[in-house]
Amino acid sequence: MRRKQEVPTALISVTVRPVEALYRALEKYYASQQDPEEPEIWIAIIFVPDDANTKPHHAHKLAQQLMDNEDANAFKYEYLFEREIPMSYLKHDVSLKELTKRGLSHGMFLDAERSFPSTLEEFWKVIMSEILSDTYGAGRWLGGIARAFGVGAPVYEIANKIFSDSLGNFGHIDRNRQYVDVYWANDGEDLECHGGIEFGSICYIEDGINDELDSWLGV
């Protein structure tokens, strides 16, 4: 994600999780009540070649030198470029203006209190609740999110990454039962199971994603 920078910095932060970039963009808009017609917030998708001369630093490794491991884990999926990202790495970008025009808004991610999640963790819970409610329908919903990124974006990868990251964030795999139990804590309470997904049902989510995107792309 890139946005207007008030204070110049030599470091540019990127994430390997699409849902985090999406949350940050929507959260910035929601918190400041910016007009979505002003394209100040962008999400950029980059690809770093294996043989690239300019590679980002893993923020987690840097954080471990400055703080304890538990705090450093907050930077596990973050990478830092120095000064600039080579333009050749840019594969696609989209403004919040375009995302909202294509039907994506913070209103799609309201919690049980009809409020936009105040943290990334709460944002994950909204997505995971949607997935647990209807696997195929959630696949269509995830496909719709990815579709808003537009032609040229790796839409199948975006939708599947949001799903896999969400499940990985809360899922506890039970191979004997062929089941993924989903746990999270609410308001500082102990972990609680909020449902789960059979291994065999994961294909319904993938089917929903594919059907939504195939119909949009005319495949």
Give a verbal description of the structure.
The chain has 219 residues and is α+β, with helices and mostly antiparallel strands. The chain has one domain (11-217). 41% of the residues lie in helices and 20% in strands. It has 8 helices and 9 strands. It has helices at residues 18-32, 59-64, 69-72, 96-101, 120-133, 135-147, 155-170, 202-217, and strands at residues 2-3, 11-15, 41-46, 57-58, 78-82, 90-95, 171-174, 179-184, 192-198. A 3-stranded antiparallel β-sheet has the order 1-3-6. Strands 2-5-4 form a 3-stranded antiparallel β-sheet. A 3-stranded antiparallel β-sheet has the order 7-8-9. Strand 7 (171-174) and strand 8 form a beta hairpin. It is globular. Residues 1-5 have low confidence and may be disordered. Residues 4-99 form the DUF7587 domain. InterPro entries: DUF7587 (IPR056009). This is DUF7587 domain-containing protein.
Topology:
Layout: E1 2-3, E2 11-15, H1 18-32, E3 41-46, E4 57-58, H2 59-64, H3 69-72, E5 78-82, E6 90-95, H4 96-101, H5 120-133, H6 135-147, H7 155-170, E7 171-174, E8 179-184, E9 192-198, H8 202-217
Antiparallel strand pairs: 1-3, 2-5, 3-6, 4-5, 7-8, 8-9
Helix pairs in contact: 5-6, 5-7, 6-7, 6-8, 7-8
Query: What is the N-to-C order of secondary-structure elements (H for helix, E for strand)?
Result: EEHEEHHEEHHHHEEEH
Radius of gyration: 18 Å
Give the distance, in angstroms, between the N- and C-terminal Cα atoms. Answer: 30 Å
Structural class: alpha+beta
Main β-sheet, in a few words? 3 strands, antiparallel
Residue share in helix? 40-55%
User: Quick check: average pLDDT?
Assistant: 87
Shape: globular
Strand content: 15-25%
The number of E-state strands comes to: 9
